[in-house]
Write a structure and sequence with these properties.
By secondary structure, the protein is an alpha/beta fold. The protein has one domain: Rossmann fold. It contains six helices and four strands; from the N terminus they run E-H-E-E-H-H-E-H-H-H. It has a four-stranded parallel beta sheet with strand order 2-1-3-4, sandwiched between helices. Strand 1, helix 1 and strand 2 form a beta-alpha-beta unit. The radius of gyration is 17 Å and the shape is globular. The two termini are about 20 Å apart.
Length: about 260
């Protein structure tokens, strides 16, 4: 889904030089803790996004956008961050969360993103011209005075659920299977639709949907679209080389 706002190629993306840099719509109301840790616990019902306050007054919009890599947990956001890094786009990460068997090449997270719902937004200014990972549940907490180019990762729901289940089991979550996959999938799909609708109404957000499954199989056309969306300044060959099919685990039988 790309929003109805002007074509991104009409606004060349120009990252600033590196600077010295030293996590709303809650996804479901019943998630015990949802943040950049990519952990989904139990969900019974997803709250609808309130659209009555979805568009704030914007007095001034910065010329340089924040590149936001978003989507559901386990949807390929870490892979996208690594691809952007290979292409030459500066990232906003802190390395606090280290690589592990669930993400052997790293999570590419910035811890302060978790504090967006509490009003910790001062760091967003330093994110302009960089890419930062923000899960879909926290997009609405981004401050409205900046512009955002969102790469929204989409992955087959059975694969997301399988990946999430394995992560929770590996971490000893005894109650990880209380909600049936079918119900969990319905709730998450509803959440994604609501978030994308909200995004389409925001004048300071541009959105490009990225199909994780298709990109892993044939990255070149998707890399080209991503580069065009961001202004055509990235190294596409390096980005293509960074897509690692060996990390495409939890493959759905439908894929």
């Amino acid at each position: 889904m790309r929003s109805s706002r002007p074509s991104p190629t009409s606004e060349p993306f120009a990252p600033p030089p590196f600077a010295g840099l030293p996590a709303n719509p809650p996804l479901p109301s019943e998630i015990d803790e949802i943040d950049q840790t990519d952990e989904i616990d139990q969900i019974d019902e997803i709250d609808q996004i309130d659209e009555t306050d979805e568009i704030d007054e914007i007095d001034e919009i910065d010329e340089i956008s924040v590149v936001v890599v978003s989507g559901l947990p386990r949807s390929g956001t870490s892979m996208m961050m690594k691809v952007l890094e290979a292409g030459g786009l500066p990232l906003l990460t802190d390395g606090v969360r280290e690589a592990d068997p669930d993400n052997p090449k790293g999570y590419y997270e910035f811890e302060r993103v978790k504090k967006l719902p509490k009003g910790d937004t001062a760091w967003v200014r330093d994110a302009r011209g960089r890419a930062v990972k923000v899960i879909s549940a926290l997009l609405k907490d981004l401050p409205s005075q900046y512009t955002y180019k969102v790469l929204f990762m989409n992955r087959l729901m059975p694969e997301i659920l399988a990946s999430q289940r394995k992560m929770l089991i590996r971490r000893g979550k005894a109650d990880s299977d209380r909600v049936p996959d079918e119900r969990m999938g319905e709730l998450l799909e509803k959440h994604v639709l609501e978030v994308k609708h909200w995004l389409s109404l925001q004048p300071n957000f541009q959105v490009l949907d990225v199909d994780y499954n298709a990109m892993v199989k044939d990255p070149r056309p998707h890399v080209r679209r991503i580069n065009e969306f961001l202004g055509g300044i990235l190294d596409e060959e390096a980005m293509v080389r960074e897509v690692d099919p060996t990390l495409y685990r939890n493959r759905s039988q439908r894929s």
